[in-house]
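Issue 218. Parser rejects a valid record. Input:
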Amino acid sequence: MEQKNVTTVARQFKRTFSEEDVNGLGKAVGFCQQERDITPHRLALGLMEVFAGARVETIADAHRAFNALCEAKVHYKPFHNQLAKPTFPAFMRTLYERLMGELTTEVLRFRPESPFARLAHITVHDGTSYALKHTLKRVFPGRFRTVSPAAVELHVTLDLLSEGTETVVLTPDSESEVHHAPSPQSLSGGLLLADRMFFVKDYLAAIAAAGGYFLIKAKDTLNPRVVAAYSAQGVEVRAFRFLNQPLNDLKPCIRQYQALDLDVAWGDFQARLVVTWDKKNKTARYLLTNLPRAEFSLEAVCDAYRLRWQVELLFKEWKSYASLHAFDTSNPHIAEGLLWAALCAATLKRYCAHMAQRLWRVPISTRKVAMCLRHVLTDIFRALMHTPRVLNQALRRALHYLSENAQRAHPLRDQLRGRLKLGLEHVYGIA
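Output the parser choked on:
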């Protein structure tokens, strides 16, 4: 059975990284018309292999790695010229979109008794910025002109249950994240987790109208009309004498309670506001949602919002273990293309983590995989490029290595107060 499952993974690799298909992507975007020493397929695998390994400081690092993997003698100049093509970013972005669609599988699932099991999907949206070489400030202007005059923003939509990205949009860092939020229609039947930047009432109302749910961190300056108040146990609080009055009139009373569950309204827009008191920092924290109180308790809402942290962990993996940093180039095509190449490598790492988890039935840390996969990944790429007949063997060795060296450190803690607390469980086995 184990060998059969590894064979299934190997088939997926061969299909995803098909030489004919990847070269076809390059031709479709105008990246190449003739297949020479540096074909789109070879370049893609070469860049992913180096970005999945050690930190890439210069283009020369990528060039040397390309020659080693491809067993080639390509000189630096023609290699650089390929990266400098205006269509290079389009090719790498198209490849990344292919990987997002092909290398995604269900990783987590809510147990049937969890109220969150009724949701079709849980979407986390956020953005993260990456500094570029300052000479690129006119093409990619940054928000912080003194510290990072040139920077890009990656607007990311993450699916919680597959731990995979659904969309990634690259823009100059000066562009707002709100412009790239998921459409309300795409959230129908699901739940959106986002930070306070997405506290836009018209947008949230549109999500509710489309049959979706939202859970957003709200600004502490909000001042809706309070319609009703409940305790953390769901019991109506009658001590408030200012109901149907602005929230500001109630804020002095909030400190008396550890947590409150309020029904609030701004004109025709109504929602549920969960308020908790942070004793350490002596401040109130606000979460706005339309999840029904009858099914989702105050505690469940607070625990659910903590799952938004999964996108922050994804960003940390990208920055720490996928070489997303200020590349030493003043060419915007190279800078953008290498960013997409790094994201391709990061996606492959996560897929290997998920396959190791499903095949060997142990909870795997994607962070640990991001750190250690480089020790066995080159064998997989060499098999893909030179000896496909040994791909099964290379994959089995790599995934078994991950199952022994990249397990999550505290699975019991995950269940008690971590990401599995709400009834999430790992999905094992391959159909």
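Fixed in the parser; the record now loads. Residues 108-309 form one domain.
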